[in-house]
Design a protein that fits this description.
This protein is α+β, with helices and mostly antiparallel strands. Helices cover about 30% and strands about 25% of the residues. It is built from 18 helices and 25 strands. The strands form seven sheets. A seven-stranded mixed beta sheet has the order 8-9-6-16-13-14-15. The protein has a five-stranded mixed beta sheet with strand order 11-19-18-17-12, sandwiched between helices. A four-stranded mixed beta sheet has the order 20-21-22-25.
Length: about 675
């Protein structure tokens, strides 16, 4: 708080459309008693004080921003408010209890109000209060209200600077041709024609973040792109480069031959299977998926003898600094990272390959360089949502009751791809030559240098249904395809698998899918509440004309979400006409942002359900742009209705929980319409 009454908030979570810019400021303003629109917001620099308390790193992900900050930021605002009141009490010589704060001023019953700016120097000398009383919900002025997003004006006027917007006089532009297969190398190349092209400054071979390639650097982006087309490169592809068939073959073999890690073992499934009067078995397959952020991967790096500066749309500023240090001559302390606005993250920008490449190039040229991935490069050199193979078995007893459930899952460990930079970021005080050792140690020492990787089985090992004998086995299977965190992570595939299979069981028993779920969720009143509200809003059992209905419910990132899809099937085409969504995410800071995130999650999930598929031939991704990796378009987008459960529980995530139930709700409706049980994505009728 400055003497001119300016309140500046340092945003320690990046803004990538999910609403942290508005949500976290709202928390501050609720207790500090200032208008949210009056607060200036700065993006945090890299510093351990900004670490996400849940991850111990400075990253934004896991739908944790509000949940991890709800109390901390409110305490900060209330502390500042009380220190300002203490200062005012001294100035006015009045009891502290007689003062109140409102609209950035301290009021007393007998005197003119004093602006915060007039009190800041005195307040800074006060001791923080030993006891704080945060507001009760009935006192809220901003929390829970449909307050306007604070980032809207900057975005529509162009004042918000995204990574793609960063420009400097004399800045060079780089593009990189990368080996088609991960782990591929440059066998030979001829750059003579490219070097002779207009505007070209340099052509150099690079190796960064495990990828080999040839960089073309020119005075403009288009000059670099035109020169890139003149390169003649022969690639050396790894002998074991994966293709679709080899990936699925490996998953099948690993599930057949490896018992895996048993992560949940309630009761005795094997005994239930032996005594069962009937069983149902099913196999589900989910493909690799790209992130397809609308702002492609981009980075700007300036390097000189004094140090290095990085401008990047990154979800992990501390990891970006490590990546720049690993691929340049500079120590971590010589690198300054500026986080920009982000045009979509979805987990893609937790990986720092684009920062590593740009730092590598700028370090060698000692000039400002901007690196941009083309859409084709972004699609073909992503860190993909892993493909996964699931085998499920359910058993019924003599009374026809579901009494056994086994889920066996083959899936790679995302942490193995994420940990090389993450481990070094945790121990950045170590010399740079130790970074590679930390990366290896992080992979080997899961749970010590790196957290346990739950990404593959989350949403499967915590199945909420009351089933006496429940077993979940995870088989680590690594085909060698680069993978990363994708919106909703493991929940994105386990939500589809578990909610499709529970629907299969309901239909096998000739029971209503809603009633079947309700009986198994009696221990979860919040789940029942979202189910019942969704059923009421969607008129369960009375679909839209020409449609059939499908239902799914899933808990992820602490939030319960139920969705009912009205689906029309005509001439073999699946058309989703309406999705009704009900969410319980605890206390809501900004209802409009919650609705927007549910809508975005539904559109994101429907894109994957109907279209998403990354295929491989000899290690090379076959998709390249939106013509063969399409996003959901307006004519395909259903009507979306979102309802929020009123709650006083601690706030939980909303950025990702809208995704997991969607594909299952649609697939379950397709079954009702056609009798076909679709067990793999994208959904396609035979």
């Amino acid at each position: 708080i400055d003497t001119d009454d300016t309140v500046t908030f340092v945003l320690d979570r990046v803004e990538m459309g999910q609403g942290t810019y508005s949500g976290l400021v709202t928390l501050l303003c609720e207790e500090l008693e200032v208008e949210p629109a009056s607060v200036a917001v700065e993006f945090a620099a890299v510093d351990s004080i900004y670490n996400n308390p849940l991850y111990k790193l400075q990253i934004t992900g896991g739908s944790t921003s509000i949940a991890s900050s709800y109390e901390r930021i409110r305490i900060a605002g209330a502390t500042a408010r009380e220190m300002l009141k203490q200062a005012a009490a001294r100035v006015l010589n009045e009891p502290l209890a007689s003062l109140r704060c409102e609209q950035g001023q301290v009021f007393s019953a007998n005197r003119q109000p004093i602006r915060y700016g007039q009190l800041v120097h005195l307040a800074a000398a006060e001791s923080a209060p030993g006891h704080l009383e945060l507001k009760q919900p009935e006192q809220f002025r901003y929390i829970g209200k449909n307050t306007q997003r604070l980032d809207t004006r900057g975005k529509i006027t162009g004042q918000a600077q995204y990574g793609i917007d960063v420009e400097f006089p004399g800045m060079l532009h780089a593009v990189v041709s990368r080996a088609p297969a991960y782990g591929g190398t440059v066998k030979s190349y001829d750059a003579r024609a490219a070097k002779a092209a207009p505007g070209v400054v340099d052509v150099l071979e690079i190796e960064a973040a495990g990828r080999h390639g040839i960089a073309v650097v020119a005075r403009s982006y288009w000059q670099a792109r035109k020169a890139q087309q003149l390169l003649k490169i022969e690639w050396q592809t790894p002998a074991n480069a994966p293709s679709d068939a080899s990936v699925w073959r490996q998953y099948e073999q690993d599930l057949d031959q490896d018992s895996g890690d048993t992560l949940r073992n309630d009761g005795n499934f094997r005994r239930a299977a032996k005594q069962a009067t009937s069983q149902l078995q099913a196999e589900y397959r989910l493909p690799y998926l790209a992130h397809a952020t609308l702002e492609p991967q981009v980075c700007v790096v300036s390097a000189n003898r004094h140090g290095m500066e990085v401008w990047a749309p990154t979800q992990a500023p501390s990891l970006a600094r490590i990546a720049a240090a690993k691929h340049s001559r500079y120590s971590v302390d010589d690198i300054l990272v500026h986080t920009t606005w982000i045009g979509g993250g979805f987990g893609r920008r937790l990986m720092q390959d684009y920062v590593a490449e740009c730092a590598f190039i700028a370090d060698r040229l000692q000039q400002p360089v901007k690196l941009i991935f083309s859409r084709e490069e972004d699609t073909q050199h992503d860190y993909y949502r892993p493909a996964s193979l699931h085998r499920l078995t359910a058993t019924f007893d003599a009374q026809g009751q579901l009494n056994g459930w086994q889920h066996r899952l083959a899936h790679p460990k995302v942490m193995h791809w994420f940990v090389p930079d993450a481990a070094a970021a945790q121990y950045h005080f170590m010399p740079k030559f130790m970074f590679s050792t930390l990366a290896v140690a992080g992979k080997l020492g899961e749970g010590i240098l790196a957290p346990n990787d739950t990404s593959g089985y989350e949403g499967a090992n915590d199945l909420p249904y009351a089933i006496d004998n429940l077993r979940m086995d995870f088989v680590h299977s690594e085909p060698g395809v680069p993978v990363g965190y994708w919106r909703a992570v493991g929940h994105s595939h386990n939500g589809f698998v578990t909610e499709s299979f529970i629907d299969e069981l309901a239909h096998q028993q000739q029971q209503d899918p809603l009633s079947f779920r309700r009986r198994l969720l009696q221990q979860h009143p919040r789940a029942l509440a979202v189910l019942d509200k969704a059923a009421t809003l969607a008129n369960w059992g009375q679909p839209l004309p020409g449609c059939k209905q499908g239902l799914a419910i899933h808990k992820s990132f602490g939030s319960w979400v139920a969705q009912i899809a009205d689906v029309q099937v005509q001439n073999g085409s699946i058309r989703v006409k309406r999705v009704v969504c009900v969410v319980d995410c605890g206390v809501v800071v900004n209802p409009d942002i919650v609705r927007a995130q549910m809508e975005g999650g539904i559109i994101f999930g429907l894109t994957a359900a109907l279209h998403g598929n990354i295929s491989l031939v000899n290690g090379a991704v076959q998709q390249s742009n939106f013509h063969d990796y399409p996003l959901l378009r307006l004519p395909e987008t259903p009507a979306i209705e979102v309802a929020i459960i009123d709650s006083t529980a601690e706030p939980t995530g909303v950025g990702e929980p809208g995704v997991p139930p969607l594909a299952a709700a649609v697939a379950n409706a397709v079954f009702v319409a056609t009798g076909q049980r679709l067990r793999q994505l994208p959904l396609q009728l035979s």
